[in-house]
Amino acid sequence: MGEFELIRNFFAAAPCAQGGEGVDLGIGDDCALLAVPPGEQLAISTDTLVAGVHFADPCDPFLLGQRSLAVAVSDLAAMGATPIAFTLALTLPTVTADWLQAYARGLNRMAQSCGVALVGGDTTRGPLSMTMTVFGRVPNGLALCRSGAQPGDLLCVGGELGNAAGALPLVLGERTAEPAIADPLLAHYWSPQPQLALGQALRGKATAALDISDGLLADCGHIAQASKVSVQVERDRLPLSGALVAFLGQAGAQNAALSGGDDYVLAFTLPSVELSPLLSEGWPIHVIGRIVAGQGVTLLDSDGQDITPQTQGYQHFRESP
Amino acid sequence: MGEFELIRNFFAAAPCAQGGEGVDLGIGDDCALLAVPPGEQLAISTDTLVAGVHFADPCDPFLLGQRSLAVAVSDLAAMGATPIAFTLALTLPTVTADWLQAYARGLNRMAQSCGVALVGGDTTRGPLSMTMTVFGRVPNGLALCRSGAQPGDLLCVGGELGNAAGALPLVLGERTAEPAIADPLLAHYWSPQPQLALGQALRGKATAALDISDGLLADCGHIAQASKVSVQVERDRLPLSGALVAFLGQAGAQNAALSGGDDYVLAFTLPSVELSPLLSEGWPIHVIGRIVAGQGVTLLDSDGQDITPQTQGYQHFRESP
């Protein structure tokens, strides 16, 4: 048995590969088999993380295991889907038992937290990268698409923004900070919590939704384009963590919130009548702007002045190979 | 808009991304949405191909586009599933319009041939590799698993074996051959045809099935292990192409058929009573052995002597990075 077959057996024996609701057949055959209840659709998303592009190499394999799965499952949250399962295509330059065990521990922890089972995948030799494909289910017609935002809707987010971008200089070792600042930022970067319960609570209420991965302004641009509307973001309403403001200052924290990637917080549009019931249920919803007729994204200051930056959006951790 | 976002738009506009039966929502949102009819299960498989490991680099991108999808869809055939859709996670070191267009043409051709729609994926910068995840549907309880083979069943394959392994020295430029020999071998390597119709015809008839990717003996070992039986393979009943025998000689062709990977022909076990009706329907089924009580795989010569080789199975195109 070759070492890569040993790895396949290793993952097949992992706690997260031991079945789950909706999994009719897991690892070990030509295909996995999932059950989708009548009246529901299957939601699917794929994400690739490449060493040196999406994460520093080397990095802590336990944290990488958590993060690689969380990033993918966040797309299920953005769709309002209930998670079922995932596949893992893992490419490794060399096989190191310590690395694999730590990676699998991180994966298991996030899989348990999100309620997904590992049902298949592939393990191959090559430069370090991983592709996760995640599966969820959502009642017919209730998936949260990007295309339904209407003029008059509120623009909302499900939590503080910019923490992952704030963490990046810490991850790269370019800066240091005291634990009270560094710890919450790094926790957000390495272990983002997909907002699955919030996504499900927004079914039939939010008119458009996505998870913020490219940066708030860039991702609002995706809603604007898909919904054929204009999105107005109010800079002074952005929810910022105390750690982020302490680390970057108010202006730096706002910039991280507007343009930094990797937050994996939900952004969504909501008819104003839907807001109060959700707030009274205790959902962490922050109104940060609104939808108007038009096209594109506009950033406003507290006086309503247009302060939209010329360049928006997304940079990978490092854009060159 | 960055070059990788341009690529995403390029694939979103590709013919194979224009929807299809069972695709409720394709490329462009956080998730794709598939419909699975009541009474059916969703079948899922993931395959990664890495440059320099699973294919020579450089190679013809059109052929690579065809082959990368065919390899993945073949797992749906092995499960008896009807194809619906696939996702593509493509990692590229540089963006070259010519390469992308040729790759997409190959992908489109195979997608059309197999009846699958591109519903999502990811495009990232990094060392060349691709992960395909394919989706199909199969009536509840009729999927062809590896675990149902019974003593007394016939061991069958769906076509000639060894052609892809025979093609490898041609692909690598280590040998040449006249077109009458080289062309059919290379065609099999670069454009394997997933045996989807055969897989569906075997529903409710075959007791176990898989597609031969690791080599016949190694893959029979997977059936033996999953079904807890012994698989007897008769060397002199292996179906070999004239081109393969002309290129490698009888003994070399038999070795390629037994141990070479990448055939993507179905191997399956069949109660003998099921054989005649399938043959009279015209399915290309070759009986190459049988299932007996026990465990493992045995290779027999024409006298029934055990000639099982010591090492079985599978080598990647090149095992080192």
Automatic annotation (TrEMBL), chains A, B:
Q: Which InterPro entries match?
A: PurM-like_C_dom (IPR010918), PurM-like_C_sf (IPR036676), PurM-like_N (IPR016188), PurM-like_N_sf (IPR036921), ThiL-like (IPR006283)
**Tell me, what does this protein do in biology?**
Catalyzes the ATP-dependent phosphorylation of thiamine-monophosphate (TMP) to form thiamine-pyrophosphate (TPP), the active form of vitamin B1.
Pathway listed: Cofactor biosynthesis; thiamine diphosphate biosynthesis; thiamine diphosphate from thiamine phosphate: step 1/1
Q: Which residues form a coiled coil?
A: none
Know the name of this protein?
Thiamine-monophosphate kinase
Query: CDD domains, per this entry?
Result: ThiL
Which residues bind Mg(2+) 1 per the record? T46, D47, D122
Give the EC number(s) listed in the UniProt record: 2.7.4.16
Which residues are listed for substrate binding in this entry? Answer: H54, D262, Y314
The gene from which this protein is expressed is thiL
Q: Please state every residue range assigned to the domain named PurM-like C-terminal.
A: 150-299
